[in-house]
From TrEMBL:
<dbReference type="Pfam" id="PF01066">
    <property type="entry name" value="CDP-OH_P_transf"/>
</dbReference>
<keyword id="KW-0472">Membrane</keyword>
<feature type="transmembrane region" description="Helical">
    <location>
        <begin position="282"/>
        <end position="300"/>
    </location>
</feature>
<keyword id="KW-1133">Transmembrane helix</keyword>
<dbReference type="GO" id="GO:0008654">
    <property type="term" value="P:phospholipid biosynthetic process"/>
</dbReference>
<protein>
    <submittedName>
        <fullName>CDP-alcohol phosphatidyltransferase family protein</fullName>
    </submittedName>
</protein>
<dbReference type="InterPro" id="IPR000462">
    <property type="entry name" value="CDP-OH_P_trans"/>
</dbReference>
<dbReference type="GO" id="GO:0016780">
    <property type="term" value="F:phosphotransferase activity, for other substituted phosphate groups"/>
</dbReference>
<keyword id="KW-0812">Transmembrane</keyword>
<dbReference type="GO" id="GO:0016020">
    <property type="term" value="C:membrane"/>
</dbReference>
<dbReference type="InterPro" id="IPR043130">
    <property type="entry name" value="CDP-OH_PTrfase_TM_dom"/>
</dbReference>
<feature type="transmembrane region" description="Helical">
    <location>
        <begin position="60"/>
        <end position="78"/>
    </location>
</feature>
Length: 324
């Protein structure tokens, strides 16, 4: 038996598996370490299983909604063992949420509806979590006023997640182009919305209206970025010059860590901590007074980067960012 040949075959198979896993990721720039170490490997195995049995990404997303909402319901109870089950359900829901995107990239089964569902999944989870914590707090002696921070924290979460998702896709747009990004703009979405009929396409028109509002929210917080994107789309119709891609990546990549902080992993780790301490109400104030300042910092610095590149591209003195 040729052990060298066998070893080379095993090595090639291992390299092929690693390559397939890496191709299922959006980008190392936008991935958080805990995702790369934990959620993405689990999601990849789930995606492989779903691909084998023919399950498409959107049903996987819908299943994740049920697990995430179920987790939120279990946080209503004060018994720690029930909360722990809820924590495990939430971790599994996020693994499924990872798997749907990896499955879509593996099978090239991407769709606008899938993107909308993927974004809405987390909102459903946390609506259930916020309601459960409010009801739990009232059982513990809080007045109905607990719903005020509950709702405000919920609104904060929506904006935090929306902007983090938007900035990730902007980064992917600059380093990978339209094929590697899910970046949308309200002008195109408005045309799609107007083409639908309430009488014939009620469901899709309602979803399109919701997504249009979501995109307008993202754009309203990023005026300098909108100017930059409009300039780039108009000037570089055949693709971005490599010098611009390299320079943008260098300046923008450090901001990606803030998109991770305000999304799932950090908030959930602290949520679990306060559930273990039986002080779940603190989560609302953490969302408002810790994550919101990080959101503001992220927006301000993203706008600085956008303003810088807008000035560089629009000035006549710049020779480095020529059209390709």
């Amino acid at each position: 038996m040729d052990t060298t040949s066998t070893g080379n075959t095993v090595k090639k198979e291992a390299e092929k598996e690693v390559s397939a896993f890496e191709n299922s990721l959006k980008s190392n720039d936008t991935e958080e370490q805990i995702d790369i170490w934990f959620y993405r490997p689990i999601g990849y195995q789930i995606a492989l299983f779903c691909a084998k049995i023919g399950l498409r990404p959107n049903p996987v997303t819908i299943i994740s909604i049920f697990f995430g909402v179920g987790a939120g319901i279990l946080f209503y109870y004060q018994e720690l063992w029930i909360n722990v089950i809820g924590m495990l359900l939430l971790v599994f829901a996020n693994s499924l949420d990872s798997a749907d995107g990896q499955l879509a990239r593996m099978t090239n089964d991407k769709s606008r509806l899938g993107r909308i569902l993927d974004g809405a999944a987390g909102d459903f989870w946390f609506i259930a979590i916020h309601i459960a914590i409010c009801l739990r707090s009232q059982n513990e002696g809080w007045s109905a006023w607990i719903w005020v921070p509950g709702v405000l924290a919920g609104a904060s979460h929506v904006v935090q997640s929306a902007m983090a998702d938007y900035y990730r896709n902007v980064h992917l747009f600059f380093i990978k182009g339209t094929s590697g990004s899910e970046l949308d703009n309200s002008a195109e979405l408005q045309k799609e919305y107007d083409s639908l009929s309430w009488s014939k396409d009620f469901g899709m028109k309602f979803i399109a209206r919701t997504y249009l509002n979501y995109t307008k929210l993202q754009e309203s917080f990023s005026p300098n970025l909108q100017k930059l994107l409009a300039l780039v789309r108009g000037k570089y119709k055949n693709g971005l010059p490599q010098t611009l891609v390299t320079d943008f990546r260098a300046q923008n990549k450090p901001l990606m860590k803030y998109t991770n902080i305000v999304q799932f992993n950090t908030r959930v780790l602290f949520l679990f901590l306060w559930l273990f301490l039986d002080q779940s109400w603190i989560y609302f104030f953490f969302d408002m007074f810790v994550l919101n300042p990080i959101l503001v910092y992220m927006i301000v610095n993203q706008e600085k980067v956008s303003r810088y590149f807008y000035q560089q591209i629009s000035t006549e003195k710049t020779n480095g960012y020529q059209s390709v």
